[in-house]
Amino acid sequence: MSHLDQPAPGRGPTEPAIETPPPHPGGGGHDAPPPVTPTRRRPFLSPLNQRRWRNFRRNRRAFWSLIIFGVLFGLTLFAEFLANDKPILVGYNGEIYAPIMRFYSETEFGGDFRTEAVYSDIEVQCLIRSGGLEDCFDDPEAIIEAGTVAEGAQAGWLLWPPIPYSFDTINDIQGAAPSAPNSDHWLGTDDTARDVLARVIYGFRLSILFTIVVTILTSVIGIIAGAVQGFFGGWTDLIFQRVIEIWTSTPSLYVIIILFAILGRSFWLLVFVTVLFGWPALVGIVRAEFLRARNFEYVRAARALGVSNWTIMFRHMLPNAMVATVTMLPFIITGTISTLASLDFLGFGLPSSAPSLGELTLQAKQNLQAPWLGFTAFFTFAIMLSLLVFIFEGIRDAFDPRKTFQ
Amino acid sequence: MSDAVLTVKGLNVRFRQDGAETHAVRDVGFHVNKGETVAIVGESGSGKSVTALSTVDLLPGSAHVDGSITYLDQQMVGASEKLLRKVRGNDISFIFQEPMTSLNPLHTLERQLSESLELHQGLTGDKARKRILELLHEVGINDPESRLGAYPHQLSGGQRQRVMIAMALANGPHLLIADEPTTALDVTIQAQILELLAALKTREQLSMLFITHDLTIVRKIADRVCVMKDGEIVETGPTAEIFDAPKHAYTKMLLEAESTGRPNPVPEGAQTVAETDKLKIWFPIQTGLLKRTTGYVKAVNAATLSVRQGETVGIVGESGSGKTTLALAIMRLIASEGPIVFMGRDIQGLKGRAMRPLRADMQIVFQDPFGSLSPRMTVEEIIAEGLTIHSSGSRDERRAQVAEIMAEVGLDPGTMDRYPHEFSGGQRQRIAIARAMILRPKLVVLDEPTSALDMTVQVQIVELLRALQSKYGLAYLFISHDLKVVRALSHKVMVMKQGDVVEAGDADAIFDAPQTDYTRALMAAAFDVRATDHAQT
Prior knowledge:
Chain B: Keywords: ATP-binding, Nucleotide-binding, Transport. Chain B: Pfam families: ABC_tran (PF00005), oligo_HPY (PF08352). Chain A has 2 domains: 84-159, no CATH class; 196-404, MetI-like fold. Helix content of chain A is 55%, strand content 2%. Chain A has helices at residues 47-58, 60-77, 79-82, 122-130, 140-146, 196-232, 234-248, 252-263, 267-278, 280-293, 297-304, 309-346, 357-366, 371-399, and strands spanning 89-92, 95-97, 157-159. In chain A, β1 (89-92) and β2 form a beta hairpin. Chain B is 37% helix and 27% strand. Chain B contains 20 helices and 20 strands. In chain B, the strands form 4 sheets. In chain B, strands 6-7-8-3-9-10 form a 6-stranded mixed β-sheet, with helices on both faces. Chain B has a 6-stranded mixed β-sheet with strand order 16-17-18-13-19-20, sandwiched between helices. Chain B has a 4-stranded antiparallel β-sheet with strand order 2-1-4-5, covered by helices on one side. The model of chain B is unreliable at 529-537 (pLDDT under 50). The chains are: A mainly alpha, B alpha/beta. At the A-B interface, α1, α11 and α12 of A face β1, β2, α1, α13 and β16 of B.
């Protein structure tokens, strides 16, 4: 079955092969006019990638998942403008301030403190609206109600984000925290009276960014390590494999606990530790692909041309090993998201002030009387991971050369 | 036609992909009578394999078949899976081209064969074993009892193909479909397998549908021939008639496509480009914990050769004779022992960095035009690769050079930004030649450059190589098992067998008066064009 006369994808001419009438062989050269060099035309995507993109788009579920995920991630990238305890813009005395971007002390709005203005305070709001009226310290509600403006000043305004709480804003709620969802807090508050929706928005962004950073770093290290092993083989391979075996059997959780105890918790330390124990994931696959490809004739041809080892590895072999690598990536990405969540859940993850979905799950466990916490955590993870799985399912199918789309 | 075993009428096969439709087989009709051998001949891409596979619906899901295929009054197009399974392997058997990949490498011979016996006849235990021994004996495997526990890799290519034939015969089929069964084999083995098939055909009253691109084989084995081109049967008729009086222009072209002529003479006073003296390539066999060397695989023993400017040395031999190993050693791509003198300098033992400047002067063209071009690089990147290493120059200058060389090897320079899969086999081989030639090398190793190509394309490539040689005074080391091509291209010939040089000398002398039995056997297999007695029975 090795030789079918059918147009095997990627090999067979789906578009007819370019037929050049074979001129008298060896001709051209000097007696013929010099051949015209065509100007470079390089489409943005190579034809192969164009085909993959078309195949991906035909998978409706994957395509729409990508769009939804893209919108969600794009929105959360601007989380500061979506959920924040500072207004997006402030108009005060005819001038425009942007509190999210810059620091303004309360004195700039006619207040007393030189610390940053607390925009959620009714007094500060009154100062801004009234143009710095002294009476605001006595009865701000009445002044806002009446719309009084200081002499010689213009009426001010505040443009709030849709959710006027940041992930770490501790809100003044009536009754005990966690409080149930209401018109102020759409998903309720958690056990320290922080708005859950704001925390979900920031937590989503943090998970995805953490995952992207970790995935890129582990992939780069894993691909280089796997490429070196597979390309050189022999003793290099043998020693490296044993090192990896020992390394992967290290109990990473204990190392994380010890390191955090010594160095304190931080985002970048967690990234470092996750990469430290995550890079062997891709090594096996890349190594296998390189072991297979190193005896291919195009590699041998490159070697006969005198191409250096590194160029052969990364110019000739890696692009052909990428398909297997790309199919492996989804597992790394979803795995990293759950790693972060479970570390947070166990209390060994990010600092407790950070907006973490894992910490939300932990709170849900501790506050079973507040089911909105559990439901929020569950649906956030379920939607995020499902979207990613659908997208990667589409990517994997698009990369499969045998899969045909009518 | 009451005795027709297989009748195909108005067969159309289309492949649909990405919205585009490829019409692989167009309105094909033929029939195979009982005890008759019908050959389908055509170049690659002509739809012959697709036609064969469609008979028992073995095509992939993207294929759409319409028309009529009847096997003994049973309609096979649109037949139920149950009926197809009954027919497959039982009434219609297949032999494929590549015996190594058609056999499961993890099963012993006994298991390979017993599987289908159990499936279709319910034979197990001693009965099955008896039948297996009978079959192996029938296909000419010596001492079958001792071979039952052998794995495919322990057999030679010819033996594997015999096992494949035994598997195909296991259930006493009426029709045997052989898809290029001898293409991957050496010429002498090829002849043996063809004899076996012919003998089986008369003994078992088999009908055979034989698919090949090799007209020499067709002449030996077929009763009737269908010539296919671009999915259509352009001519059909009895073998003798087609060969003696072809009507269609395409058939005439196929018949005439044979590498002929002789190489251009070597210019007077040509310098020696490369020389070896008793070059030895032994791979150590290491065993045990301490990797002590306990023996050697003797790939090449004491090979002495020299090649001058404008001269071709042909290295001939069957697979495993060490011809490719020798060429790779001369290019210093694998380790060897003994002096290798290139351009007056001993390059044996030079380190990678010291070798790199010399690489520009020695180039290689490989057999498989699909495997030797990286599928992720454009043609321009592939051809210009050597320039980026060995010479400076801007990107535009390099593109101009690529355009020049592409025109020279007969490719349209306008296609330089395309990817290799958009080219046909012959065009790809031209790309590989362009890649080797762009550095203006002194020595080019040609490792079976024509073996994977169709005959008509082969002829063009041979002519191209000859023209390039006389224009630039290139020295060729030409490796091939195809003696016709060797004859058309070589000044000197070296015959190798299992690592030893059995005969070497001027091409004319060796071809006209071979000294050893081995060389004579090779010649006989290659030039024996006349039909043997089997074809007429």
